[in-house]
Structure formats: C-alpha cells, structure tokens
C-alpha cells in the first residue's frame, strides 16, 4: 500500500550562489525588501541566503532573551544589533547574523548608528545553524574581529573566543563567566512548555547564583 510522503519541516532553508562579486552581492542586498525574514551571508564570492522557519526563530528569540538577561546581570549595559548587516568590503565579506551585541564596547557606540569603518565590531555574535551551512563562519567572524562567537546547532552550544591564532573553543563565555551552558539547555527546554515561567526560573537562578 502506497502512502503519501510527509513533508519534512526543517528549521531553516538555504540557497547558495557562487562566484559573485562584491558589487553583485550589494545589488542583491539592496534589491531585497528591508522587512524580509531571510538573512544573507557573503564570503569572498559565495552568497548564502537563509530562510528561517519556526524552530530556528524560536531558538534565536529565546537565546536573545537569555543574552539580555545575562547582560543585565554581569555587564550592566548592552546595544542590540539584531541581524544588522555587518559589511566589510575590505575583507570581501558581509553577514546578517541571527543576533549581534555590543557589550564591553557599548559605551563607544551608544546613542548612535554604528559605523563599521570606524567603530569596533560587535563583542558577541550568535548564530543558530541547525542545517548545514556552506560558509565557514568561524573563519568569517574571526576575519571580522568578533571577540566572541556562539554557534548553536539545536542541541549543543559552542562558544568561541578570538585569539591571535583564530577562534578557540571554550566552555564558559568570556562575557558571562558565571553562566554554565547547561543552564541554556535547561532554559530552552522549559521555554518550549512555558516561556514566561522559564524566564522567571532563569532570573531567579541568576539572582541566587551570581557571584
């Protein structure tokens, strides 16, 4: 007996273009609507367009909430860049990450529009990559000088700290040294059932364990 195949609901869909010039990438970027949900990453001729779906967006928004709560506790300041385009024509690279933040360098860019030709790059970039990406994001964000990069594949969070030799994977975030990755996993699990209660639980844990 034949059955109708079920459609697989992926958390994100990707389209790849190769051998593009920087000018062509800029034309595509400008042609797309400002209010689109797709995100673009360009790496020396390769353009990847990602169309995030529900699972991807849930994870991005929950991790963003977590970062903002942690910034309130450990740093006391934050400038959220969201998926603002980070273009570096001198590197032939550009990206619209899931989230980017100024934390330590927030005082240098507060109250105005960031100019990447003069200002430092964001202190932290977060990417949720559940499906395979053709872009080597470690090399991409290291070239941009992003001090800290989080990459989450839906199950495991990898935290990278920029060194003179490139990114080095670390277990504890340099920005939030008192926060173990296990609490992120717990927060996401609880948020799937009740986002408000998960936030309350997280805030209470931070108040009880902040050193």
TrEMBL record:
Organism of derivation: Thermostichus vulcanus str. 'Rupite'
Supply the InterPro entries for this chain.
Nuclease_put_TT1808, Restrct_endonuc-II-like, Uma2
The lineage is:
Bacteria, Bacillati, Cyanobacteriota, Cyanophyceae, Thermostichales
Mind listing the UniProt keywords for this protein, alphabetically? Endonuclease, Hydrolase, Nuclease
Name under which the protein is recorded: Uma2 family endonuclease
Phosphoprotein in keyword set: no
Q: Where is the Putative restriction endonuclease domain?
A: 23-174
Q: Gene3D superfamilies from the entry?
A: tt1808, chain A
What molecular function terms (GO) are annotated for this protein? endonuclease activity
Q: Does the keyword tRNA processing apply?
A: no
Q: Which Pfam families match?
A: Uma2
């Amino acid at each position: 007996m034949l059955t109708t195949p079920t459609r697989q609901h992926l958390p994100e869909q990707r389209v790849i273009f190769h051998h593009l010039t920087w000018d062509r990438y800029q034309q595509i970027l400008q042609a797309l609507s400002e209010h689109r949900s797709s995100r673009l990453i360009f790496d020396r001729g390769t353009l990847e367009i990602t169309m995030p779906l529900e699972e991807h967006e849930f994870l991005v928004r929950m991790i963003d909430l977590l970062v903002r709560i942690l910034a309130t506790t450990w740093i006391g300041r934050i400038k959220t860049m969201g998926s603002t385009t980070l273009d570096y024509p001198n590197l032939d690279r550009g990206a619209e990450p899931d989230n980017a933040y100024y934390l330590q360098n927030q005082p240098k860019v507060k109250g105005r529009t960031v100019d990447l030709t003069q200002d430092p790059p964001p202190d932290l970039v977060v990417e949720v990559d559940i499906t395979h990406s053709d872009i080597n994001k470690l090399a991409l964000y290291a070239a941009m000088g992003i001090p800290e990069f989080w990459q989450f594949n839906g199950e495991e969070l990898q935290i990278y700290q920029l060194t003179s030799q490139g990114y080095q994977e670390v277990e504890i975030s340099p920005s939030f040294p008192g926060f173990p990755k296990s609490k992120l996993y717990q927060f996401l699990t609880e948020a799937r059932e009740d986002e408000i209660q998960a936030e309350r639980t997280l805030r209470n844990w931070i108040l009880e364990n902040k050193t």
